[in-house]
Design brief:
Order of helices and strands: HHH
Strand content: under 5%
Structural class: mainly alpha
Distance between the termini: 145 Å
Helix content: over 70%
């Protein structure tokens, strides 16, 4: 018999388990108590902060667009009123020119 065979036979020989083996195994396979996982909560909180910031930016954008529309309407009304006033001035000038001759 070679040294390898002798070592193998010794390693595979039946032995009685230690007395405290059952307690150790039961402790390992016992259901683990739930652990608090904080990483998903941090990810959710970060996503909420990003969403809130994006929503605020969108609100500012919408307010700017509304102000732009109001300004464009005001300029259009002003242009129309200015055209009416210019027509009246031209009409008065035409009368005066025609009246002076």
């Amino acid at each position: 018999m070679t040294d390898f065979e002798r070592d193998l036979k010794e390693a595979l020989k039946r032995r009685e388990p230690p007395r405290d083996l059952t307690a150790g195994i039961m402790a390992r396979i016992a259901p683990q108590q739930p652990r608090f996982h904080w990483r998903p909560l941090v990810a959710i909180a970060a996503a909420l902060v990003v969403f809130a910031g994006g929503f605020e930016q969108y609100q500012q954008y919408r307010k700017g667009q509304e102000a732009k529309q109001q300004l464009m309407l005001a300029l259009e009304i002003t242009a129309q009123k200015l055209a009416v006033a210019t027509d009246k001035v031209n009409e008065l000038n035409q009368r005066r020119i025609g009246h002076d001759q």
